[in-house]
Amino acid sequence: MLQVNFLRQNTELAKKKLAIKHFTNLNLVDEVISIDDQRKQLQASFDDLQSKVNAASKEIGAQMAKGDKDKAEALKNEVADWKKQLEPLKEKMAEVEAQLQQVIVQFPNLPHDMVPLGKTPEENEVVRVGGVTPVLPPNAVAHWDLIKKYNLVDFETGAKITGSGFPLYIGKGAKFQRVLTQYFLDFNTAAGYTEYLPPFMVNAASAFATGQLPDKEGQMYHATEDDFYLIPTAEVPVTNVFRDTVLKEADLPIQMTAYSPCFRREAGSFGKEVRGLNRVHQFEKVEIIQIVHPEKSDAVLEEMVAHVEKLLVSLGLQYRVLRLCGGDMGFASAITYDFEVYSAAQERWLEVSSVSNFQAYQTYRMKCRFKDADGKIQFAHSLNGSSLALPRIFAAIVENYQTENGIALPEVLQAYFGSTHLV
RNA sequence: GGAGAGAUGCCUGAGUGGCCGAAAGGAACAGUUUGCUAAACUGUCGUACUGGCAACGGUACCGAGGGUUCGAAUCCCUCUCUCUCCGCCA
């Protein structure tokens, strides 16, 4: 959530930056300021009146104690008058505050200076390409054929049990998920991240804090009976660990990692996009999250990108790093790097990680602050990234490591799996 | 699911209608002093909005929301959560 004071002091800059994110309703900036003006004014008159009421109430007590009943009664009448004026003020204030909230949550985060202009995924900037170019056997096929051939994942039965996009992993396919999860978590904790296993459902307050509500309401599964949301990423519960807290500066940086299944309705997806494991409603992911000093977040983002990159290198996959353009970035992010691995069999890049700096956008929403050396309270910055999302890594490994007879495993996974080959 | 108890500041915990934004102790921080890995003493020590260059004020907040009252941490109602006992159960 953007801060009104920032918009007030940097109106033109904010508009310029919002435009980069292809946020079109720029008049909303002026609107928010004028609503806030109203709010301040109401607040001032309310406080003023309330202050009189408080003083008079105290006086009434004093008069009663002295036994001057008449004076007390007179004061009571006066207070009653003020209170009548207070009522409409209170109502108006609630109304204006709701209006302010309703408008301000519509603003996406402002993009970082490094964010490239552009609207579509094609305009994302390729920062670098790395890893090993896969060499496939002559009759190589895509993962959806391989997982069928080796009976690793059964989509049909998953669809029977739940619905399409809910894969059922079987045998070595299931074990491979477990092994990948374990490897990723070990990799992250070795780098200093603390492991968490969070709830997989969150309440509305948590979903709001990280920006899923109200922006992505339709993308989450909602358990209406209890008003819980199935998490679309571990980012939601784990970042919320520090909702409504004031940390000490020495507590920073906070580094967390968590495995979780992710549930996404993915309304509106279709075609090749959703084939096989490319896009599913439930998938596994290991996430890394950091809460850091605002001055450090730029450097930490680079560090997290390097971390994910190292992980991909260790898996022997070819990858590229993209700096997302303004139009393709997430709502709450100030800057995002996407990692894509190359699927030679599909001849396309698959997104496997997204590393973002949210700056104070989430922390302001969820009131995650810290006390700096001068004793001042500041909002921390939050960042997160996938390290890594499993299905597409699964797909890429299965495809890129396929041989004439079986599927090999990246060296780092062999000890975990207890074999040189997946099948 | 049933019954009961509770929710106060970083923690423990007092406070049952005005003197309470809140005692006391602990922790933390700063200083003084003595000194062998620490003690004693002194001070500071909630958050948000708002006015002011500042000093310093105003308002709100004692789980959340509503109500009673001139006045609520304190009384009433609803909800949430925690604990204990019972039931059920991976």
Which structural traits does this protein have?
423 residues; alpha+beta; Helix Hairpins; eight-stranded mixed beta sheet; 13 helices; RNA-binding
Question: How does this model look, in words?
Answer:
- The protein is of the alpha+beta class.
- The chain has two domains: 101 residues, Helix Hairpins; 297 residues, BirA Bifunctional Protein, domain 2 (2-Layer Sandwich).
- It contains 13 helices and 18 strands.
- The strands form five sheets. The protein has an eight-stranded mixed beta sheet with strand order 1-11-12-13-16-10-9-4. Strands 5-7-6 form a three-stranded antiparallel beta sheet.
- α3 runs antiparallel to α4, α5 packs across α12 and α7 crosses α13.
- The radius of gyration is 27 Å and the shape is elongated.
- The two termini are 48 Å apart.
- The protein binds one RNA strand of 90 nucleotides through α3 and α4.
